[in-house]
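Title: Prediction job returns without error message
Component: structure pipeline
Severity: low
Priority: P3
Assignee: unassigned

Description:
Job completed but the reporter wants confirmation the result is attached to the right record. Sequence as submitted:
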Amino acid sequence: MTSTHLTIRDIAALAKVSKGTVSRVLNDGPGVGEETRKRVLKLINDLDYQPNAAAQGLAAKRTFNIGVIIPHTGNYSMASAYWPVLLTAITEKAAEKNFNVLLSTARSEEDVDSAYRSILRGRRVDGVIVSAEQFGQKQLAELLFKGFPFVMVGRSSFIAHYFVDVDNVGGAAEVTKHLIKLGHHNIAMLAGPEHFPSVIERVAGYQATMSAAGLKPSIAHCSYLATTASESVKALLAQRPAPTALFVAAGDLATPAIRATTELGLTIPADLALVTFDDHPFYEYFSPPLTAVSQPIQMLGQAAADLLFALIEGRQPEMTNRILPSKLVIRRSCGS
């Protein structure tokens, strides 16, 4: 699937009106109700529509910029263990092509659209790399409408498009098997927002492994905010029988989880084995060092950039997607 400029027919489909109606709105013609006219004009304005000839003219002018859209605030993104590494890899690939990288983050966690609006308006980039975490139909329509080549990091739940991702299911299954081999039967899982595709896949890997071993899964979903993560951990550990192991399914949840266990007076790994999905260089300096599923984040960024530049240059990529393997890094927090 490649991105092309949408036509008046596509505008009509999105607005649920006829092509003739769209044409009359564009030409300020008669015979269109005021409410319909406003609805079509708002759609055209929101998507920064240009008629075909103008759009093709814009497309012919290279900006030598690519965009990276992160649907989180800048504070959250740059403080995480994931996004800075990914962004660095993309930037290095772009430099090899003499391209600049424009980064766009959300104004707030509740206003994901702002990350898209600020970078797509005015066609300042030749293509974009987007996080599939909160990628919805509205964002897809905008990207397709404006004719931007784009590549997703992570999978979308509703579109098969160019993407790169890590083996979330396999990584979650591997770490769960490791805990079972160590003798744990009550293994709880702290997962991120339940509608994120990566979270869905990690939960699936954990659940399938637990069920195959005849064990009962126990899952708590929470946001990536420290306060809600700590509360969710305490609720999980209050269950009876109490979990003997906790699988934290995102690196951003690891520190709040450890803080919660400390507040409960538990010792890792004597009272509770703890493992996390996402590794970080400082995890080996924790006391005890933290067992983690390591993602090839740098390789993800490089693969996403390679895919995007192939699309920008009009080349058909050899593969429409790449799934990269994860690696379990065993340290002492699980008692091994």
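Comment from assignee: result matches the submitted record. The chain has 13 helices and twelve strands.
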